[in-house]
Amino acid sequence: MLDTKDKAILDILSSSGREPASSISSKIGMSVPAVIDRINKLQDSEIIVGYKAVINHAKLGMDISALITLISESSEHYYDVIKLANNAVEVVKCFATTGAGSHVLLIRTESTDSLEKFLRKIQQWPGIIRTETQLILSSNKQ
Predict the structure, then answer these.
(1) How is the chain split into domains, by residue range?
(2) Closest by Cα among 26, 24, 30, 29 to 11
(3) Out of 3.40.50.300, 3.30.70.920, 3.40.50.2300, 2.20.25.90, which CATH number does the structure's domain 57-135 have?
(4) Would the CA dihedral through 80, 85, 138, 49 be positive or negative?
(5) Is 1.10.10 the CATH classification of the domain at 4-44?
(6) pLDDT of residue 22
(7) pTM, rounded to two decimals
(8) For the chain, first and last CA: distance in Å?
(9) Are 107 and 91 within 8 A, CB to CB?
(10) How far apart are CA 18 and CA 33, in angstroms?
């Protein structure tokens, strides 16, 4: 069970994964060795499973981000869709969902032209009868 100190450490690391233990220590009122010990325990128990860089995709020329809901005719091609999504370079994440669609893709691409080409491609995937696309204007929380 997590206590308030563990939760505080998780909160700090979730917004700043490279925060030094000394900084965390001063923020939550614990010694540096105690903070390191708690972080190690959170990693060992797989509560912390990794650290990631936050990337400015616009600087890489990937100016378009979108959510694409995939509406399929049945669940027959459920795993085929996951495999195709995992192999598509445009797909950042593939979510299995409830509701109107079976999957939602988070994609990044260079332009509306490349988005249109990708949409044509996924509309040919087995079992996909329709897609619904939402362009992401901004992201306020990572």
Answers:
(1) 4-44, 57-135
(2) 24
(3) 3.30.70.920
(4) positive
(5) yes
(6) 96
(7) 0.78
(8) 26
(9) yes
(10) 17
